[in-house]
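for the writeup, i need someone to sanity check this before i put it in the appendix. the sequnce is what the collaborator sent (i think, or maybe the updated version? ugh). structure was predicted straight from it, no edits. if anything looks off just tell me and ill rerun, i have time this weekend
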Amino acid sequence: MKSLQNVSASVRQRILNRSKADSRMKDFYDICLLSRQFEFFLGTLAEAVRLTFKQRGTELSEPIDAFSDDFISSRQPMWAALCKRLKQEHIPESFREIVTEVELFLKPLIKGVSDNMTWKPAGPGENLQLITE
């Protein structure tokens, strides 16, 4: 059975590396859901992401297309279709809102500054947050 860190790393790799060709809106949903429900030590997660990229023979480079206005605008109809299919009240209808959450969660991993950080999921009415230890 894959660990939460490895599953999370695999989904991140797909988002960060294949965003132009990849229209899997479910990957964004999965990352958002994981970030809302679980605490992550980002140093461990960064290592899992690094190993996933290495195993797949891919590199992480900026800028990340998945965070661009063009990508967000072009994928909004796909996001709306996923929301309609999933029928989950907690999912924002705005793809931009989801991408903003995912970017906040992934930015320390992308920038390589995650070693001493912990991701704490937000409770009801709270903002998403990173805690530096």
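The chain has one domain: 4-132. Residues 4-132 form one domain.
thx in advance!!
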